[in-house]
Amino acid sequence: MTDHAASDAPPRALVFDVFGTVVDWHGSIAREAQTLFHERGIAVDPVAFTEAWRAGYQPAMHRVRTGDLPWMKIDDLHRLILDDLVARFAITGLSEADLAQFNRVWHRLDPWPDAVEGLGLLKRRFTIATLSNGNFALLTNMAKRAGLPWDCVISAELFHHYKPDPETYRGAADLLGIAHGELMLVACHPDDLRAAQRAGLRAAYVKRPAEHGIGSAPPAYADGEFDDVADDFVDLARRFEARWFAVR
Fold first, then answer.
1. Are 18 and 134 in contact (CB under 8 A)?
2. Neighbours of 213 (CB within 10 A)
């Protein structure tokens, strides 16, 4: 548990990881891939393709961190990965327009069923914002399409650092004009939360057991490791309401 967990004061703002935490990347991309592949007669497993696309995400960002690639926004990294996968899966018959449209599937990810309601409840008490490696346009388009009620959009693109670099977490607090310890990251990825804690933020874990598909194994974390643990955003809002705002 972090030092901030014992504080009686609520955080002043919540920032949210997006891919997996707020939106269902796995289901959304697999459905669109299935439709595209069926229409074009492409004999590729859409789930395997989806998982391979996501698996390229961290290695691509690592190439930017190490200087193997210049700074690139996530849209461009997703396209690099997509082009590699088209070759790896021996996919033919997709035009440049097809590939550009398919690459923007990351802008069209569907929210988890609790996301819009839960964010609305949390927004009553807190400033809420993204803190995602997704680029600014991607996050803005996603929010517009999905009805995500952010107070503002904060992207790693603003800092030219990807999470888990500490510049992203501290930079979000600085943009919001609050101390690092007054900001809480909400995420379904323990590694993201641990990096936020190392940067001085608070951390709340939200369970997303179907992030990698139904029946996938959830990530491991220790009891008491984070400031709070919730089943979904509605549950998180209720827990925070009882913890900090209930009439005593």
1. yes
2. 14
User: Tokens representing 210?
Assistant: 């179907």
Walking along the chain (248 residues) 10 residues at a time, the average pLDDT comes out as 59 98 98 98 97 96 95 97 98 96 98 98 98 98 98 98 97 98 98 98 97 90 97 98 86
* Residue 138, CA distances (Å) to 41, 46, 105, 109, 155 in order: 29, 22, 10, 10, 9
- CA dihedral 25→28→33→36, nearest 10 degrees, is -140
Report how far Cα 63 is from the mean position of its chain's Cα atoms: 20
Q: What is the pLDDT of residue 14?
A: 99
Question: Helix (H, G, I), strand (E, B), or coil: what is residue 137?
Answer: helix
Angle of helix 74-88 relative to helix 46-55, nearest 10 degrees, comes to: 130
Of 165, 205, 171, 175, nearest to 61 (Cα)? 165
User: What residue ranges define each of the domains in the chain, with the CATH number in brackets?
Assistant: 3-24+110-245 (3.40.50.1000), 25-107 (1.10.150.240)
